[in-house]
């Protein structure tokens, strides 16, 4: 079996990482508007208020807000079949809890979607990609509070209706899976996902469990809502998963690896099986964490199963030895795999891990999967004649596409698309840097926001164009 003729080749971007214009169009303040750029190896800082002294990269992004037509034209030139964008909640409901949405925000996304459709590019819309109005965190305490679920559903309904008939593929959340009470979370991760600082949480385990539960519930309710607004909607959820390998074949270490990887799946279990998993509730109970699934919630889980799974795949990791307190991700300083190379940021380069993950997930759930993010963050050198020779990026992507094809052609995984992160350079989520680049298109901006914002095609631009033209045969 070859890749389907309508296989969705393309890319993924997120509003807060590319739009900029953080205070234009009556946009409210979003949580990522308060995060500074992090020095290399140092976490980003979270500020309580805006101050003139720090650099907030999401304030300017790559100016996609004003330049989206030009950028989409470049994606069209590459032959993109799909582009995943996100809607910044704070553009639609500046505070998150208003009754009337901001029409200017709605119009902006309608224009972006129209532009994509003009070129025959399928829009895939994420409703929550780390973009929460700050007001909801300050007033209600974020996802800990169920009122925020209602606010989120109001926002979803507004967007389902505003883009009805134009958008077929929806994503309820990006990577809600990173918060789990079993692991120590970093401030920046709890902040990115829920606008809260881990170190300041009072009852850490209970809070993370409640957030995880409420977001899962919110996703199921949004799926049901989206299907009601338009039964043709295909609604999924995106997870960022790393395969976790045992450090050796000692069964204790194999068990450690299993447990570490399994932590990322309870929400997918809930969304695919239509019930919040009993094993998770029992695990919580054994640790004094209270999660009560009411009759009403059970109904919501049953009626809100997803149509597809979105997978963000960058790297695999190795579980810690028995005795180590926490398993750490390869993305954030865990054990390195001696068989694999890593990016400058220590993220392992493991194309076979993609095939493994696709197999693992498809066999577990049997519903269609789309790769919603995959790519290499690298420092690109602009040559004197203003070119970027990024053969390392081509090499990375080529190897991953080869493994994806094996998963489809040999292993019979139902994978209907491959979206790279990110087709154009934009602000990195975990570091806030511009210098961690993923794009086929270079954006002339540095970590301090200095530069012309000129767009320059890298060598990988033509290469990816060829991949799409030949449906992955190139
Ligand atoms: C994913 C996020 C993206 C993106 C990507 C790369 O987890 O969904 O928003 O940023 O990671 O991460 P970074 O930008 O930190 O290199």
TrEMBL record:
Instruction: Name any GO cellular component annotation.
Output: cytosol
Q: Does the keyword Mitochondrion apply?
A: no
Tell me the lineage of the source organism.
Bacteria, Bacillati, Bacillota, Clostridia, Lachnospirales
The family line of this record is: Belongs to the glycosyl hydrolase 1 family.
Name of the protein in question: Aryl-phospho-beta-D-glucosidase
Pfam families from the entry? Glyco_hydro_1 (PF00232)
PANTHER family noted in UniProt:
6-PHOSPHO-BETA-GLUCOSIDASE ASCB-RELATED, GLYCOSYL HYDROLASE
Source organism (scientific name): Lacrimispora celerecrescens
Active site: residue positions: 373 (nucleophile)
Q: Which GO terms describe its molecular function?
A: beta-glucosidase activity
Q: Which GO terms fall under biological process for this protein?
A: carbohydrate catabolic process
Cite the entry's keywords alphabetically.
Glycosidase, Hydrolase
């Amino acid at each position: 079996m070859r890749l389907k003729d309508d296989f969705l080749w393309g890319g993924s971007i997120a509003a807060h990482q590319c739009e900029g214009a953080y205070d234009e169009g009556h946009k409210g303040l979003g949580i990522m508007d308060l995060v500074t750029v992090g020095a290399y190896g140092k976490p980003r800082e979270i500020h309580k208020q805006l101050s003139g002294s720090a650099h907030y990269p999401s304030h300017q992004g790559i100016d996609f807000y004003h330049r989206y037509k030009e950028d989409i034209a470049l994606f069209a030139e590459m032959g993109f079949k799909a582009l995943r964008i996100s809607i910044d909640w704070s553009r639609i409901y500046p505070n998150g809890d208003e009754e009337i949405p901001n029409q200017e925000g709605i119009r902006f996304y309608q224009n972006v979607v129209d532009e994509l459709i003009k070129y025959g590019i399928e829009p895939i819309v994420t409703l929550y990609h780390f973009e929460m109005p700050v007001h909801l965190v300050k007033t209600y305490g974020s996802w800990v509070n169920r009122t925020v679920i209602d606010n989120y559903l109001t926002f979803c309904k507004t967007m389902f209706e505003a883009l009805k008939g134009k958008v077929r593929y929806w994503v309820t959340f990006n990577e809600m899976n990173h918060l789990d009470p079993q692991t120590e979370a970093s401030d920046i991760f709890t902040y990115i996902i829920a606008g809260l600082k881990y170190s300041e949480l009072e009852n850490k385990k209970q809070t993370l469990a409640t957030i995880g539960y409420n977001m899962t519930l919110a996703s199921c309710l949004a799926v049901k809502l989206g299907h009601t607004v338009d039964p043709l909607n295909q609604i999924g959820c995106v997870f960022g998963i790393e395969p976790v390998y045992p450090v050796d074949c000692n069964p204790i270490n194999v068990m450690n690896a299993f447990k570490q990887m399994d932590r990322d799946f309870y929400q997918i279990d809930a969304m695919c099986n239509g019930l919040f998993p009993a094993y998770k509730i029992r695990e919580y109970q054994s640790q004094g964490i209270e999660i009560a699934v009411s009759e009403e919630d059970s109904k919501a889980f049953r009626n809100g199963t997803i149509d597809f799974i979105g997978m963000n795949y960058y790297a695999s990791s190795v579980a810690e030895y028995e005795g180590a307190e926490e398993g750490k991700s390869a993305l954030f300083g865990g054990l390195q795999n001696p068989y694999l190379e890593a990016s400058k940021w220590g993220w392992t380069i493991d194309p076979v891990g993609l095939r493994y993950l696709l197999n693992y997930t498809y066999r577990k759930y049997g519903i269609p999967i789309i790769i919603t993010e995959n790519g290499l963050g690298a420092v690109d050198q602009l040559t004197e004649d203003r070119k970027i020779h990024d053969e390392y990026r081509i090499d990375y992507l080529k190897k991953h596409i080869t493994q994806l094809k094996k998963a489809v052609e040999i292993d019979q995984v139902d994978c209907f698309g491959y979206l790279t992160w990110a087709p154009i350079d934009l602000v990195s989520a975990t570091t806030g840097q511009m210098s961690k680049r993923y794009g086929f298109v270079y954006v002339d901006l540095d970590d301090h926001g200095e530069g012309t914002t000129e767009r320059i095609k890298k060598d990988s631009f033509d290469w990816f164009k060829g991949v799409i033209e030949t449906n992955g045969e190139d």
